[in-house]
Design a protein that fits this description.
Helix content: over 70%
Shape: elongated
Structural class: mainly alpha
Distance between the termini: 49 Å
Radius of gyration: 16 Å
Order of helices and strands: HHHHH
Number of strands: 0
Length: about 60
């Protein structure tokens, strides 16, 4: 089980540890994260990871 210090100082690592240790599935953690995010947060995350439609459209253009 990840410790309280990690939760306080490195919450991302706390989440990864929970998934790695099987305390929660990656699917359930993804669902929890998306539920906690606003629509703008989700769009920003997709864009930051080049997964938004504007990047998908570029991939299609490159394949032609």
């Amino acid at each position: 089980m990840p410790d309280e210090k990690t939760y306080q100082t490195e919450p991302r690592n706390y989440v990864w540890a929970m998934v790695d240790e099987g305390l929660v599935s990656a699917d359930d953690m993804l669902t929890a994260a998306i539920k906690a995010m606003s629509h703008d947060d989700v769009r920003a995350m997709l864009d930051a990871n080049e997964l938004s439609p504007r990047f998908m459209e570029n991939d299609d253009d490159e394949q032609d």
